[in-house]
Amino acid sequence: MTYLGAHLSSSGGFYKMGKAALAIGANTLQCFVRNPRGAKAKAINPTDLGKLRELMAENSFGPIVAHAPYIMNPCSKDEGIRALAAEMMAGDLELLEHLPGNYYNFHPGSHTGQGVETGCRQIADMLTAVVKPEQKTVVLLETMAGKGSEIGGRFEELRAILDLAQCPQDRLGVCLDTCHVSDAGYDITNDLDGVLAEFDRVIGLSRLLAIHVNDSMNPLGARKDRHALIGQGAIGTEAIVRVLTHPALRRLPFVLETPTDDAGHGEEIAMLRERLGEAQSA
Ligand code: FE
Ligand code: FE
Ligand code: ZN
């Protein structure tokens, strides 16, 4: 079965979130480790995480994706904001040691006028400082729409960060967001093979470890980053199904971040499973 899920709220605890995933037909999920606005990390609750781990094993879940807070910016021109980013990532990764073998995805950041080169170096410096060789979580850089001074709209920028980071390369990977790459000008709608070939040439497909499945409210190259429901944007259901069924991507976790609630995500998952020939009879 394709690993398909959605971004869910962990505010009621991690085990409860796992149950919510099952209820919508998901076998992977994404969540924030802490309040998305950047508040303090939840007190580590190994029992709750242990129960989620059991639920995931019993239900053949794929790897899940923890998402860093949106406010995290490791390449801000403000040194204090950069230090806070490192602190937040270190804290989140510490908690995730209780959930081994999963992913931690973050937005590379916005260079706020410092330039792409300086930005990439600062992001790599944070990874060098925070990512431990022995950690059980793989940290993912997310492909971005490239709006404003955002880094990660070009595959080359992600490659540069990976190259500059002085940490074990098997602890670092990439998460591709379908809305973001389309907004960044990569035509996954009409030329998925071409985009994946470009990804492979610049970064290497072996580094691609998770997919965010979103339609886009805006046309190719718009650099806006406004997610749409599957089938209600510029990418369309057919192109999304081609992503889900591409032989190079088959075993990756696919996570919906479309603008709807759990029930809405459940409907999208059911629709996509139907298209994949994975409809549940129960
Ligand atoms: Fe994201
Ligand atoms: Fe995303
Ligand atoms: Zn987005």
Describe what you observe in this structure.
- With 282 residues, this protein is α/β, with parallel strands linked by helices.
- Helix content is 38%, strand content 14%.
- The protein is built from nine helices and ten strands.
- The strands form two sheets. It has an eight-stranded parallel barrel. Strands 8-9 form a two-stranded antiparallel ribbon.
- The protein is globular and about 50 Å long.
- The mean pLDDT is 95.
- One fe (iii) ion (FE) is lined by residues 142, 177, 212, 257.
Give the structure's gist in a few sentences.
The protein is of the alpha/beta class and 282 residues long. It has helices at residues 14-23, 46-58, 79-96, 116-130, 155-164, 178-183, 192-202, 237-245, 262-275, and strands spanning 4-7, 28-32, 65-67, 103-106, 138-142, 172-177, 208-213, 215-216, 227-228, 254-256.
- The Rg value, from CA coordinates, equals 18 Å
- Uncertain segments of ≥5 residues (pLDDT<50)? none
Give a quick account of the main beta sheet: strands, pairing sense, barrel closure: 8 strands, parallel, barrel
Mean pLDDT: 95
Instruction: Give the overall shape.
Output: globular
Strand content: 5-15%
The helical percent reads 25-40%
Which structural class do you get from the secondary structure elements? alpha/beta
* SS element count, helices: 9
Secondary-structure element series: EHEHEHEHEHEHHEEEHEH
Spatial strand order of the main sheet? 1-2-3-4-5-6-7-10
Topology, number of strands: 10
Ligands in the model, by name, code or SMILES, are: fe (iii) ion, zinc ion
Distance between the termini: 15 Å
